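Input protein
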Amino acid sequence: MRLTNAKQTIAHPTLAAARPTLLAARDRERAKYRILLVEDNPVEAMRIRQLLARTRVIQFEVESVATLTVGQERAVSGEFDLILLDLDLPDSIGLDTYSALSCAVPALPIVTMIRAADEAVALEAVQLGAQDVVIKSHASAEGLARTIRCAIERHRVLSSLRGLSLTDELTGLLNRRGFTTIAQGHLRLASRTGQRFMLMFADLDGLKEINDTCGHHEGDHALMRIAEVLRRTFRQSDVVARYGGDEFAILALNQSGDLGETIRRRLTAKLAQENETLDRPYRLGLSLGAIPFDGRLEEPLGALLARADRALYVEKRARQRGTEPTASPLSPSLADMPSDQVGELQTLSEA
């Protein structure tokens, strides 16, 4: 914290003294940082390795790959603390390289590397979310080490603050704001790459009945269990959120092109597994509305969400008429349960 007036700036003594102590302690605990270096020039890659090997403050373990595709595959492994990324690669050029990699691993800090001093590119990279920009020809051992350490620490702090505003407190999934923020980034990338996605809205079946019959704490339990089902169903790179109340939103890469039937089958199987171990007299189930879309069409997120909501409405109406879609992950409501099971729920709520 700094106290500032027109004449002087005074650093807060307690925090000023604490910062180096905290960083030193963290460095002692973490004797080595794992770095993924995405650089297609073997001479440059060797030079970066040599620079990091000469640092005195901390050890770096560097793994090098030469293409964006391999970089994405390695980055999602969860083995790395930071990515050093050359923007110009054999399979991707410019800022699209950063966008593609950051969408694959949004939780991993990325420092971009450029060949020449280009203020416009550097500024846009930071605006897109890069933690820093390094000019290759200007890199030094201590300077690069300091950039990496500061980038990791800055990303940790920003992630913590962002998590407070973008995460649903009950389920630990993204909230509506978090979903919108991250989904917009995916759509911007898709408009350049032409990737196909599935957007889904899902409702937890029978939540109102559970709340009315057993109390809201039991409804909260059902929401947390269904959130865990969604985590196990979708990939780490997919965007999964509790959109509000009993409603969930998911943005997933549509690799199969089968209008969401593969996802439906996987979700049905995961729900069945969860219900086998669910220590409650009701079954978990979801109503699901899914729409495919092509990123090249640049359809606004609001319009896509409206279409997914209509698809969810159509499924619900079909179920009410007794013509529910095949392979839909559905469950009976409390109204369909025997009276002794409903009584058991009431007993659980009073316990």
Q: What stands out?
A: The longest strand covers residues 196-204. DSSP finds twelve helices and eleven strands in the chain.
